[in-house]
Amino acid sequence: MFDDILIAVDGSDCARSAAKHGVELAAKYDAAVDVVTVYGGDDDEGQAVLDDVVGMADDAGVAVETELLSGKPAKTIAARAEQRGADLVVMGRRGRSGIRSRLLGTVTERVLRRSPVPVLTVPEGDVDSDTGTAYGDVLVTTDGSDLAAAAGPYGADLARRFDAALHVLNVVDVQAEAGVFNAGGVDREYIERLETRGHQAVDELLATVDASEMDVRRAVIRGAAHDAIGEYVDENDVDVVVMSSEGQSNLAGQQLGTVAGRVLRTVDRPVLVVTEG
């Protein structure tokens, strides 16, 4: 699934954490790796950022190619992914301040809107930890849409590669479905219909993947989508979240893209966002 991985870095701690995840994913998938940084300043500083990742990759026994790029970061990274035919972009969720807007933060969101391939966004973590990138629990979220279901194969493949439990979650937001003025006025039958639809969404996603011999855990819970996802992640010690960037949400027409954006801001775990491409 991941034969060619593009890792974008800027020297920040968050980007270094992302690079570690990218390198270890490459080792797991035996993937080719392209490490880039987009710099408008000192080339020596930019090369030092790349060399840091090379050292990290050497320690993991992974060969990488590197290149110092120039231009608008988000556009440049997305174009590089397309030109190279990458299967995955890996980058930190936030970056260093100064030197233009550097690479990450709002730039990450722009890459998500442009990228032709999934983007793994990684929060700051302990790069020097000896535990490595171990995904023991993989969560895929679904709202029942075809676009949301596109995340299923990625979540299942990660779970299979890491011998992890595969969680499939649908969130039912009763208030959003019923409308704010009807909140508290819906009956039990209405809520049960929403939950039945949620279970169908979970089953439909699982029908698109080969989950045989996997530890599959289905869940339908109530709440505001991003809050409920965050609570589920914490309560179940989820290591990585996989979700679509867009899709018709069961939140009264709200886009899953909005939910994904909120999850990226609130969930302190790597999030693999499957873009529309």
What would you note in describing this structure?
By secondary structure, the chain is of the alpha/beta class. The chain folds into two domains: 4-122, Rossmann fold, CATH 3.40.50; 137-274, Rossmann fold (3-Layer(aba) Sandwich). The protein is 42% helix and 20% strand. It has ten helices and ten strands. It has helices at 13-29, 43-60, 73-84, 106-114, 146-149, 152-161, 174-178, 188-207, 225-235, 256-266; strands at residues 4-8, 32-38, 64-69, 88-92, 119-122, 137-141, 165-172, 216-222, 240-244, 271-274. The protein has a ten-stranded mixed sheet with strand order 3-2-1-4-5-10-9-6-7-8, with helices on both faces. α10 links the parallel β9 (240-244) and β10 (271-274). α1 (13-29) packs across α2. The chain is elongated and about 65 Å long. The model is unreliable at 96-104 and 247-256 (pLDDT under 50).
